[in-house]
Task: inverse folding
Protein backbone atom coordinates (compact mmCIF):
# COMPACT_ATOMS: atom_id res chain seq x y z
CA UNK A 1 0.00 0.00 0.00
CA UNK A 2 1.12 3.54 -0.64
CA UNK A 3 1.12 5.35 2.66
CA UNK A 4 3.84 7.85 3.15
CA UNK A 5 4.20 9.83 -0.01
CA UNK A 6 1.92 11.31 -2.62
CA UNK A 7 1.70 9.47 -5.92
CA UNK A 8 1.89 11.30 -9.23
CA UNK A 9 -0.58 10.05 -11.81
CA UNK A 10 2.16 9.88 -14.39
CA UNK A 11 4.09 7.47 -12.12
CA UNK A 12 1.07 5.23 -12.16
CA UNK A 13 0.76 5.45 -15.90
CA UNK A 14 4.41 4.56 -16.27
CA UNK A 15 3.73 1.49 -14.18
CA UNK A 16 5.97 2.48 -11.27
CA UNK A 17 3.29 1.46 -8.82
CA UNK A 18 1.93 -2.02 -9.11
CA UNK A 19 -1.19 -1.38 -7.04
CA UNK A 20 -4.41 -2.00 -9.03
CA UNK A 21 -5.33 1.67 -9.14
CA UNK A 22 -7.67 1.33 -12.08
CA UNK A 23 -10.58 0.45 -9.83
CA UNK A 24 -10.22 3.90 -8.20
CA UNK A 25 -11.03 5.64 -11.41
CA UNK A 26 -14.35 3.90 -11.78
CA UNK A 27 -15.93 5.99 -9.03
CA UNK A 28 -17.00 9.50 -9.74
CA UNK A 29 -14.15 11.77 -8.66
CA UNK A 30 -14.57 15.02 -6.76
CA UNK A 31 -16.22 17.78 -8.82
CA UNK A 32 -14.04 20.81 -8.16
CA UNK A 33 -15.68 24.06 -9.24
CA UNK A 34 -12.22 25.32 -10.17
CA UNK A 35 -10.98 22.33 -12.13
CA UNK A 36 -14.26 21.62 -13.94
CA UNK A 37 -13.87 21.52 -17.73
CA UNK A 38 -15.45 24.51 -19.50
CA UNK A 39 -17.83 22.28 -21.43
CA UNK A 40 -19.14 20.76 -18.18
CA UNK A 41 -20.11 24.11 -16.70
CA UNK A 42 -23.88 24.30 -16.61
CA UNK A 43 -25.31 27.32 -18.38
CA UNK A 44 -27.85 29.43 -16.58
CA UNK A 45 -30.27 32.22 -17.31
CA UNK A 46 -30.29 35.73 -15.93
CA UNK A 47 -32.28 38.62 -17.41
CA UNK A 48 -29.56 41.11 -16.44
CA UNK A 49 -26.94 39.26 -18.46
CA UNK A 50 -25.74 42.42 -20.25
CA UNK A 51 -25.21 44.24 -16.96
CA UNK A 52 -23.32 41.21 -15.69
CA UNK A 53 -21.03 41.28 -18.71
CA UNK A 54 -20.54 45.04 -18.21
CA UNK A 55 -19.49 44.47 -14.62
CA UNK A 56 -17.06 41.76 -15.69
CA UNK A 57 -15.65 43.90 -18.52
CA UNK A 58 -14.92 46.70 -16.07
CA UNK A 59 -12.66 44.41 -14.03
CA UNK A 60 -11.26 42.76 -17.11
CA UNK A 61 -9.92 46.18 -18.00
CA UNK A 62 -9.06 47.55 -14.57
CA UNK A 63 -8.10 44.60 -12.35
CA UNK A 64 -4.37 45.23 -12.39
CA UNK A 65 -4.92 48.90 -11.61
CA UNK A 66 -6.40 47.96 -8.22
CA UNK A 67 -3.87 49.01 -5.59
CA UNK A 68 -4.75 46.39 -2.99
CA UNK A 69 -5.00 43.49 -5.46
CA UNK A 70 -4.23 40.04 -4.00
CA UNK A 71 -4.24 36.44 -5.23
CA UNK A 72 -7.69 35.73 -3.84
CA UNK A 73 -9.11 38.64 -5.91
CA UNK A 74 -7.45 37.29 -9.05
CA UNK A 75 -8.73 33.78 -8.26
CA UNK A 76 -12.41 34.86 -8.03
CA UNK A 77 -12.05 37.14 -11.03
CA UNK A 78 -10.75 34.30 -13.19
CA UNK A 79 -13.54 32.06 -11.95
CA UNK A 80 -16.11 34.67 -12.91
CA UNK A 81 -14.51 34.76 -16.33
CA UNK A 82 -14.63 30.97 -16.58
CA UNK A 83 -18.30 30.70 -15.54
CA UNK A 84 -19.26 33.46 -17.97
CA UNK A 85 -17.38 31.39 -20.57
CA UNK A 86 -15.18 34.30 -21.53
CA UNK A 87 -11.77 32.73 -21.00
CA UNK A 88 -9.24 33.85 -23.56
CA UNK A 89 -5.53 33.76 -24.04
CA UNK A 90 -5.13 37.54 -24.20
CA UNK A 91 -3.84 39.56 -21.27
CA UNK A 92 -2.82 36.41 -19.44
CA UNK A 93 0.83 37.38 -19.34
CA UNK A 94 0.31 40.40 -17.06
CA UNK A 95 -1.74 38.43 -14.55
CA UNK A 96 0.83 35.64 -14.69
CA UNK A 97 3.59 38.16 -13.86
CA UNK A 98 1.54 39.39 -10.92
CA UNK A 99 1.24 35.83 -9.57
CA UNK A 100 4.96 35.14 -10.02
CA UNK A 101 5.74 38.21 -7.91
CA UNK A 102 4.11 36.37 -4.99
CA UNK A 103 6.36 33.32 -5.32
CA UNK A 104 8.73 32.53 -2.40
CA UNK A 105 11.41 29.84 -2.70
CA UNK A 106 13.63 28.73 0.17
CA UNK A 107 15.79 25.59 0.37
CA UNK A 108 13.91 23.54 -2.22
CA UNK A 109 10.56 24.57 -0.84
CA UNK A 110 8.23 26.65 -2.93
CA UNK A 111 5.09 28.50 -1.82
CA UNK A 112 3.34 31.82 -2.41
CA UNK A 113 2.43 34.88 -0.37
CA UNK A 114 -0.92 36.68 -0.55
CA UNK A 115 0.19 39.62 -2.70
CA UNK A 116 3.44 41.11 -4.03
CA UNK A 117 3.10 43.85 -1.38
CA UNK A 118 2.42 41.50 1.52
CA UNK A 119 4.93 41.70 4.37
CA UNK A 120 4.42 38.09 5.41
CA UNK A 121 7.65 36.30 6.25
CA UNK A 122 6.53 32.82 5.27
CA UNK A 123 4.56 31.67 2.23
CA UNK A 124 1.22 30.05 3.12
CA UNK A 125 -0.91 27.19 1.81
CA UNK A 126 -4.02 29.26 1.04
CA UNK A 127 -2.09 31.73 -1.15
CA UNK A 128 -0.25 28.85 -2.80
CA UNK A 129 -3.62 27.32 -3.64
CA UNK A 130 -4.91 30.61 -5.09
CA UNK A 131 -1.71 31.09 -7.12
CA UNK A 132 -1.68 27.62 -8.68
CA UNK A 133 -5.43 27.72 -9.36
CA UNK A 134 -5.01 31.08 -11.09
CA UNK A 135 -2.26 29.68 -13.29
CA UNK A 136 -4.49 26.74 -14.14
CA UNK A 137 -7.37 29.11 -15.01
CA UNK A 138 -5.00 31.14 -17.18
CA UNK A 139 -3.91 27.96 -18.97
CA UNK A 140 -0.33 28.53 -17.81
CA UNK A 141 0.09 25.97 -15.03
CA UNK A 142 1.82 23.29 -17.10
CA UNK A 143 4.52 25.62 -18.47
CA UNK A 144 5.06 26.94 -14.93
CA UNK A 145 5.48 23.45 -13.47
CA UNK A 146 8.00 22.63 -16.18
CA UNK A 147 9.84 25.94 -15.88
CA UNK A 148 12.77 24.55 -13.86
CA UNK A 149 12.84 21.17 -15.54
CA UNK A 150 10.93 17.95 -15.18
CA UNK A 151 9.07 17.69 -11.83
CA UNK A 152 11.36 20.14 -9.96
CA UNK A 153 8.70 22.76 -9.22
CA UNK A 154 6.19 20.07 -8.29
CA UNK A 155 8.60 18.49 -5.84
CA UNK A 156 9.44 21.87 -4.32
CA UNK A 157 5.72 22.55 -3.75
CA UNK A 158 5.26 19.04 -2.34
CA UNK A 159 8.14 19.67 0.10
CA UNK A 160 6.53 22.94 1.11
CA UNK A 161 3.17 21.26 1.78
CA UNK A 162 4.73 18.45 3.82
CA UNK A 163 6.26 20.98 6.26
CA UNK A 164 2.77 22.05 7.36
CA UNK A 165 1.67 18.59 8.45
CA UNK A 166 2.31 18.61 12.21
CA UNK A 167 0.54 15.40 13.08
CA UNK A 168 -2.27 16.90 15.14
CA UNK A 169 -2.74 20.07 13.13
CA UNK A 170 -2.33 21.08 9.50
CA UNK A 171 -0.91 24.61 9.45
CA UNK A 172 -1.82 27.49 7.16
CA UNK A 173 1.78 28.75 7.39
CA UNK A 174 4.91 28.45 9.54
CA UNK A 175 4.77 31.92 11.08
CA UNK A 176 3.98 31.51 14.78
CA UNK A 177 2.51 35.04 14.92
CA UNK A 178 0.11 34.49 11.99
CA UNK A 179 -3.46 35.58 12.74
CA UNK A 180 -5.04 33.19 10.25
CA UNK A 181 -3.24 30.28 11.90
CA UNK A 182 -4.59 31.36 15.27
CA UNK A 183 -8.15 31.83 14.07
CA UNK A 184 -8.65 28.75 11.89
CA UNK A 185 -8.48 25.00 12.25
CA UNK A 186 -7.04 22.47 9.83
CA UNK A 187 -10.10 21.60 7.72
CA UNK A 188 -10.00 24.46 5.21
CA UNK A 189 -6.21 24.19 4.84
CA UNK A 190 -6.55 20.47 4.13
CA UNK A 191 -9.20 21.12 1.50
CA UNK A 192 -6.87 23.63 -0.20
CA UNK A 193 -3.97 21.18 0.10
CA UNK A 194 -6.01 18.50 -1.65
CA UNK A 195 -6.82 20.93 -4.46
CA UNK A 196 -3.12 21.81 -4.80
CA UNK A 197 -2.19 18.13 -4.98
CA UNK A 198 -4.83 17.63 -7.64
CA UNK A 199 -3.40 20.57 -9.60
CA UNK A 200 0.02 18.93 -9.39
CA UNK A 201 -1.40 15.75 -10.91
CA UNK A 202 -1.40 13.74 -7.70
CA UNK A 203 -4.29 11.37 -7.11
CA UNK A 204 -5.29 12.25 -3.56
CA UNK A 205 -7.45 9.15 -3.29
CA UNK A 206 -4.24 7.18 -2.87
CA UNK A 207 -3.17 9.32 0.09
CA UNK A 208 -6.15 8.78 2.38
CA UNK A 209 -4.09 7.78 5.40
CA UNK A 210 -2.16 11.04 5.52
CA UNK A 211 -5.31 13.11 5.97
CA UNK A 212 -7.69 10.72 7.67
CA UNK A 213 -6.64 11.64 11.26
CA UNK A 214 -7.60 15.29 10.68
CA UNK A 215 -10.99 14.44 9.28
CA UNK A 216 -12.23 11.69 11.58
CA UNK A 217 -13.52 14.14 14.22
CA UNK A 218 -17.22 14.57 13.42
CA UNK A 219 -17.75 17.61 15.65
CA UNK A 220 -20.58 19.70 14.25
CA UNK A 221 -19.42 23.24 13.58
CA UNK A 222 -18.91 25.32 10.42
CA UNK A 223 -15.61 23.49 9.81
CA UNK A 224 -17.65 20.43 8.91
CA UNK A 225 -18.13 21.90 5.40
CA UNK A 226 -14.44 21.58 4.58
CA UNK A 227 -14.22 18.22 6.30
CA UNK A 228 -16.95 16.67 4.18
CA UNK A 229 -15.56 18.27 1.01
CA UNK A 230 -12.16 16.78 1.84
CA UNK A 231 -13.71 13.39 2.60
CA UNK A 232 -15.31 13.40 -0.85
CA UNK A 233 -11.94 14.36 -2.35
CA UNK A 234 -10.34 11.37 -0.65
CA UNK A 235 -13.16 9.08 -1.72
CA UNK A 236 -14.14 8.62 1.94
CA UNK A 237 -17.58 10.14 1.46
CA UNK A 238 -19.37 6.92 2.43
CA UNK A 239 -18.39 7.84 6.01
CA UNK A 240 -20.54 10.97 5.88
CA UNK A 241 -23.98 10.53 7.44
CA UNK A 242 -27.27 12.03 6.32
CA UNK A 243 -27.64 13.88 9.62
CA UNK A 244 -24.41 15.80 8.92
CA UNK A 245 -25.99 17.17 5.76
CA UNK A 246 -29.21 17.90 7.66
CA UNK A 247 -27.12 19.81 10.19
CA UNK A 248 -25.98 22.15 7.40
CA UNK A 249 -29.47 22.69 5.96
CA UNK A 250 -30.76 24.01 9.29
CA UNK A 251 -28.67 27.19 8.83
CA UNK A 252 -30.78 28.37 5.90
CA UNK A 253 -32.31 31.76 6.68
CA UNK A 254 -35.50 33.56 5.71
CA UNK A 255 -33.81 35.19 2.66
CA UNK A 256 -32.81 31.77 1.28
CA UNK A 257 -29.11 32.15 2.08
CA UNK A 258 -27.11 30.44 4.83
CA UNK A 259 -25.36 31.77 7.89
CA UNK A 260 -23.98 30.16 11.05
CA UNK A 261 -24.12 33.30 13.16
CA UNK A 262 -26.15 36.05 11.48
CA UNK A 263 -29.93 36.45 11.10
CA UNK A 264 -29.62 36.96 7.34
CA UNK A 265 -27.93 34.52 4.97
CA UNK A 266 -24.40 35.52 3.88
CA UNK A 267 -22.92 35.11 0.41
CA UNK A 268 -19.69 33.38 1.44
CA UNK A 269 -21.34 30.90 3.81
CA UNK A 270 -24.09 30.21 1.26
CA UNK A 271 -21.47 29.53 -1.38
CA UNK A 272 -19.65 26.85 0.61
CA UNK A 273 -22.76 25.26 2.12
CA UNK A 274 -24.59 24.96 -1.20
CA UNK A 275 -21.46 23.65 -2.90
CA UNK A 276 -21.22 20.95 -0.23
CA UNK A 277 -24.97 20.23 -0.45
CA UNK A 278 -24.64 19.78 -4.20
CA UNK A 279 -21.64 17.45 -3.85
CA UNK A 280 -23.68 15.38 -1.34
CA UNK A 281 -27.01 15.54 -3.16
CA UNK A 282 -26.66 11.79 -3.80
CA UNK A 283 -27.02 11.33 -0.03
CA UNK A 284 -29.66 13.95 0.70
CA UNK A 285 -31.52 16.01 -1.88
CA UNK A 286 -31.53 19.76 -1.34
CA UNK A 287 -34.11 22.35 -2.33
CA UNK A 288 -32.75 24.68 -5.04
CA UNK A 289 -35.97 26.73 -5.28
CA UNK A 290 -35.61 28.26 -1.82
CA UNK A 291 -31.93 29.12 -2.50
CA UNK A 292 -32.55 30.77 -5.88
CA UNK A 293 -34.23 33.98 -4.54
CA UNK A 294 -31.13 34.68 -2.43
CA UNK A 295 -28.79 34.31 -5.40
CA UNK A 296 -31.01 36.27 -7.77
CA UNK A 297 -31.62 39.16 -5.36
CA UNK A 298 -27.95 39.50 -4.35
CA UNK A 299 -26.83 39.53 -8.00
CA UNK A 300 -29.37 42.27 -8.71
CA UNK A 301 -28.22 44.36 -5.75
CA UNK A 302 -24.58 44.19 -6.86
CA UNK A 303 -25.35 44.99 -10.50
CA UNK A 304 -27.65 47.88 -9.64
CA UNK A 305 -25.14 49.94 -7.71
CA UNK A 306 -22.35 51.72 -9.49
CA UNK A 307 -20.47 52.03 -6.16
CA UNK A 308 -20.39 48.25 -5.91
CA UNK A 309 -17.70 48.01 -8.57
CA UNK A 310 -15.06 47.06 -6.04
CA UNK A 311 -13.00 43.93 -5.40
CA UNK A 312 -15.14 42.71 -2.52
CA UNK A 313 -18.36 42.82 -4.57
CA UNK A 314 -16.58 41.32 -7.58
CA UNK A 315 -15.65 38.28 -5.46
CA UNK A 316 -19.23 38.04 -4.17
CA UNK A 317 -20.63 38.27 -7.67
CA UNK A 318 -18.30 35.51 -8.81
CA UNK A 319 -19.50 33.22 -6.00
CA UNK A 320 -23.14 33.99 -6.83
CA UNK A 321 -22.64 33.26 -10.54
CA UNK A 322 -20.94 29.94 -9.76
CA UNK A 323 -23.79 29.05 -7.40
CA UNK A 324 -26.37 29.95 -10.01
CA UNK A 325 -24.62 27.67 -12.48
CA UNK A 326 -24.47 24.86 -9.89
CA UNK A 327 -28.15 24.94 -8.93
CA UNK A 328 -29.66 26.09 -12.24
CA UNK A 329 -30.54 22.78 -13.88
CA UNK A 330 -32.09 21.37 -10.73
CA UNK A 331 -33.92 24.62 -10.03
CA UNK A 332 -35.39 25.21 -13.46
CA UNK A 333 -36.42 21.57 -13.93
CA UNK A 334 -38.44 21.70 -10.72
CA UNK A 335 -40.03 25.10 -11.26
CA UNK A 336 -40.85 24.36 -14.92
CA UNK A 337 -42.67 21.22 -13.88
CA UNK A 338 -44.82 23.18 -11.40
CA UNK A 339 -45.61 25.98 -13.86
CA UNK A 340 -46.46 23.67 -16.77
CA UNK A 341 -48.70 21.55 -14.55
CA UNK A 342 -50.52 24.71 -13.42
CA UNK A 343 -50.94 25.85 -17.01
CA UNK A 344 -52.28 22.49 -18.12
CA UNK A 345 -54.98 22.33 -15.45
CA UNK A 346 -55.93 25.99 -14.96
CA UNK A 347 -54.69 27.80 -18.09
CA UNK A 348 -52.95 30.25 -15.77
CA UNK A 349 -50.23 30.16 -13.16
CA UNK A 350 -51.00 31.34 -9.67
CA UNK A 351 -47.80 33.13 -8.78
CA UNK A 352 -48.90 33.72 -5.20
CA UNK A 353 -49.25 29.99 -4.78
CA UNK A 354 -45.80 29.35 -6.27
CA UNK A 355 -44.17 32.07 -4.22
CA UNK A 356 -45.68 30.88 -0.93
CA UNK A 357 -45.49 27.11 -1.46
CA UNK A 358 -41.98 27.00 -2.85
CA UNK A 359 -40.49 29.99 -1.01
CA UNK A 360 -39.66 31.57 -4.34
CA UNK A 361 -39.75 34.98 -2.71
CA UNK A 362 -37.66 36.78 -5.32
CA UNK A 363 -36.73 36.39 -8.97
CA UNK A 364 -40.05 35.09 -10.35
CA UNK A 365 -39.78 37.67 -13.17
CA UNK A 366 -36.54 36.04 -14.34
CA UNK A 367 -38.19 32.62 -14.32
CA UNK A 368 -41.12 33.88 -16.42
CA UNK A 369 -38.73 35.63 -18.78
CA UNK A 370 -36.69 32.41 -19.13
CA UNK A 371 -39.82 30.36 -19.87
CA UNK A 372 -41.02 32.88 -22.45
CA UNK A 373 -37.66 32.69 -24.15
CA UNK A 374 -37.54 28.93 -24.38
CA UNK A 375 -41.20 27.99 -24.92
CA UNK A 376 -43.54 28.77 -27.78
CA UNK A 377 -46.17 30.33 -25.52
CA UNK A 378 -45.88 33.67 -23.79
CA UNK A 379 -46.55 34.14 -20.07
CA UNK A 380 -47.52 37.58 -18.85
CA UNK A 381 -47.52 38.67 -15.23
CA UNK A 382 -50.86 40.34 -14.52
CA UNK A 383 -50.81 43.26 -12.20
CA UNK A 384 -54.18 42.98 -10.44
CA UNK A 385 -54.41 46.63 -9.64
CA UNK A 386 -53.63 47.70 -13.20
CA UNK A 387 -56.05 45.16 -14.66
CA UNK A 388 -58.77 46.30 -12.26
CA UNK A 389 -58.30 50.00 -13.06
CA UNK A 390 -58.54 49.16 -16.77
CA UNK A 391 -61.77 47.23 -16.26
CA UNK A 392 -63.63 49.99 -14.42
CA UNK A 393 -62.34 52.88 -16.51
CA UNK A 394 -65.53 53.35 -18.56
CA UNK A 395 -68.07 52.72 -15.78
CA UNK A 396 -70.23 55.36 -14.06
CA UNK A 397 -68.68 57.08 -11.00
CA UNK A 398 -71.11 55.28 -8.68
CA UNK A 399 -70.32 51.85 -10.09
CA UNK A 400 -66.60 52.65 -10.00
CA UNK A 401 -66.79 53.53 -6.31
CA UNK A 402 -68.88 50.41 -5.59
CA UNK A 403 -66.40 48.06 -7.28
CA UNK A 404 -63.38 49.85 -5.85
CA UNK A 405 -64.80 49.42 -2.38
CA UNK A 406 -65.21 45.67 -2.92
CA UNK A 407 -61.74 45.43 -4.46
CA UNK A 408 -60.12 47.14 -1.47
CA UNK A 409 -62.00 44.87 0.94
CA UNK A 410 -60.93 41.75 -0.92
CA UNK A 411 -57.37 42.98 -0.89
CA UNK A 412 -57.49 43.66 2.85
CA UNK A 413 -59.58 40.79 4.15
CA UNK A 414 -59.07 38.24 1.41
CA UNK A 415 -62.83 37.76 1.04
CA UNK A 416 -65.82 40.08 1.38
CA UNK A 417 -69.60 39.85 1.58
CA UNK A 418 -71.29 41.48 -1.37
CA UNK A 419 -73.81 44.18 -0.40
CA UNK A 420 -77.35 42.89 -1.03
CA UNK A 421 -78.87 46.09 -2.45
CA UNK A 422 -77.45 49.07 -4.20
CA UNK A 423 -78.50 51.18 -1.21
CA UNK A 424 -75.50 49.87 0.67
CA UNK A 425 -73.24 51.43 -1.89
CA UNK A 426 -71.71 54.70 -0.76
CA UNK A 427 -71.67 56.99 -3.76
ZN1 LIG B 1 -0.65 31.26 9.03
Result:
Amino acid sequence: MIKESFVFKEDLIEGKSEYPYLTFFKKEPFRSFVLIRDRDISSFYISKYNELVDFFSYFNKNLLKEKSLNLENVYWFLLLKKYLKMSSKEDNKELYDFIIKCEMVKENKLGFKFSPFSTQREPDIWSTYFALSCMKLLGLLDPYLLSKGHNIVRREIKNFLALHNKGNVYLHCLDKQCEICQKTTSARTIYFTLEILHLLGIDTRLSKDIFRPYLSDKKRDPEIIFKILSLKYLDLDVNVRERTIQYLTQFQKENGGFSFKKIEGRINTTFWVVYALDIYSWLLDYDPISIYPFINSKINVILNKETYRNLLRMMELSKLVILLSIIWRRFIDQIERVILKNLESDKFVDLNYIVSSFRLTYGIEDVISYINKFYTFNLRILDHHLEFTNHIRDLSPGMKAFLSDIYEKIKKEGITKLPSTKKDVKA
